[in-house]
Specification:
binds magnesium ion, binds 6-O-phosphoryl inosine monophosphate, single chain, 19 strands, binds guanosine-5'-diphosphate
């Protein structure tokens, strides 16, 4: 059996959480393979909103199990808070339905402090200040702390060593040091959470992938990839679907469809180039209608027209097979829409309603025409279009979700 991977085709926040939630209806496992709590995935159901950060987006179904893979980083204090918030919303994570790979790296207060200190200086990138970059740095520097270290009680010496390293760095930046006791306390408090959920299986999906449906959920977007994104204005992990095999880990031959999620326009949080950015009242209107404020930091998202040159590049680099276009409803009523193609901005017709009539499962001809321009330019089919925030607000175009598993 081959299993689909959901990834963002732009700069994050494309609506991956919603699509993963839709697919989780028919899967046993939902697996995150990169990033940490820099992610914020919003799930709407019957007027109720739920936001996940480190926890995968399969939590809305009682049958689905959720897995945080080896390629992710985890802030234990933030994770404990997230688990509590989910509990408050009626979602109960148990050792049966939630697991964390023992090889995932741990974000400590000192990583968060360093991220914030750097952002305060002249080399800031507009990060989420969740300590993501410093945690991945510790990992590749081979001084990081893994979930398994904490569970096995092997973390304390390592924390002391990390504190020495990072505090000299923090001092050089003129920032307050991160105390050893604060970091040791974080490790102490992480023990209980990690002990309940840790998975020590080195090949967790080797057998599962042969028998049961899984979906792999990427965080961030292709254009934020550490190697292939708009470096240095990127995140610190690989956001490409190919990384799912490594970051889950998942058998390479068990991976199939690459589902690229893309907004009908572009948003970006943080610094970095943005050719089609709209710094005018059209941009303001889209931000307001689309509620374009970060799910993690609350920062206003920058808005711009859809850049098909970038999208085509993202499709190629990710080997994307199916596109899902979200937020068509947000552009309802815009008379003209910009599409950046072959280095030029062209204005095309908009639509008054993205669906034929309220609640209809048919897209309006004008919105469908916009989708056809995209399909033609990027060379892969747009199999579904988002027409509202709810899980049900998704119109399939001659396609059924079951077809993602082959
Ligand atoms: P993710 O990080 O890719 O999971 O996306 P986020 O949850 O951070 O941001 C996407 C936002 O768009 C959320 O507020 C979603 O509720 C919302 N959303 C997703 N699809 C649609 C859609 O088709 N229409 C509208 N109006 N909102 C959508
Ligand atoms: P989801 O999974 C949007 C952006 C930050 C910043 C850059 C580096 O919700 O799509 P980092 O904290 O990772 O070091 O920040 O990446 N960024 C995101 N933007 N959605 C995300 O996640 C993001 N995760 C990181 O704004 O520009
Ligand atoms: Mg998000």
């Amino acid at each position: 059996m081959r299993h689909p991977i959901v990834v963002g085709m732009q700069y994050g926040d494309e609506g991956k959480g919603k699509i993963t939630d839709v697919l989780a209806r028919q899967t046993e496992w939902v697996i995150r393979f990169n990033g940490g709590n820099n992610a914020g995935h919003t799930l709407w159901l019957n007027g109720k909103k739920l936001v996940t950060h480190s926890v995968p987006s399969g939590v809305r179904y009682s049958h689905a199990k959720n897995f945080i893979g080896a390629g992710c980083v985890i802030d234990p204090l933030a994770l404990t808070k997230e688990i509590d918030e989910l509990k408050g919303a009626g979602v109960s994570l148990t050792p049966e339905n939630f697991k964390i790979d023992y090889r995932a790296h741990v974000t400590l207060p000192l990583h968060v402090a360093l991220d914030a200190a750097r952002e305060g200086g002249s080399h800031g990138l507009g990060t989420t200040k969740r300590g993501i970059g410093p945690t991945y740095s510790s990992k590749t520097d081979r001084i990081g702390i893994r979930v398994g270290d904490i569970v096995e009680g092997k973390a304390f010496d390592k924390v002391r060593f990390l504190c020495q390293n990072y505090n000299s760095y923090l001092k050089a930046l003129g920032s307050q040091e991160s105390s050893e006791s604060q970091n040791l306390a974080a490790v102490e408090s992480a023990l209980e959470t990690f002990r309940s959920f840790v998975s020590r299986d080195p090949h967790p999906f080797y057998e599962i992938a042969k028998k049961t449906k899984c979906v792999l959920e990427g965080a961030q977007g292709i254009l934020l990839d550490i190697d292939h994104g708009s470096y240095p204005f990127v995140t610190s992990s690989s956001t490409l679907p190919a990384f799912a095999a490594v970051g889950a880990p998942f058998p390479l031959t068990g991976l199939g469809a690459v589902i690229g999620v893309c907004k009908a326009y572009v948003t970006r949080v943080g610094l970095g180039p943005f050719d089609t950015e709209l710094k005018n009242d059209v941009g303001e209107r889209i931000r307001k209608t689309g509620a374009e404020f970060g799910a993690t930091t609350g920062r206003p998202r920058r808005i711009g027209w859809l850049n098909l040159d970038e999208l085509r590049q993202a499709v190629k680099i990710s080997d994307c097979t199916h596109l899902v276009l979200t937020k068509g409803d947000v552009l309802n009523g815009e008379k003209k829409l910009g599409l950046h193609m072959n280095g030029k901005l062209e204005m095309v017709d908009g639509w008054s309603e993205c669906v034929e009539k309220q609640g209809s499962q048919n897209l309006s001809p004008a919105f469908d025409k916009y989708i056809q321009i995209i399909e033609k330019f990027i060379g892969i089919p747009v199999v579904a279009a988002g027409t509202g925030t709810d899980r049900e607000d998704l119109v399939w175009r001659n396609f059924k979700a079951e077809q993602f598993w082959s």
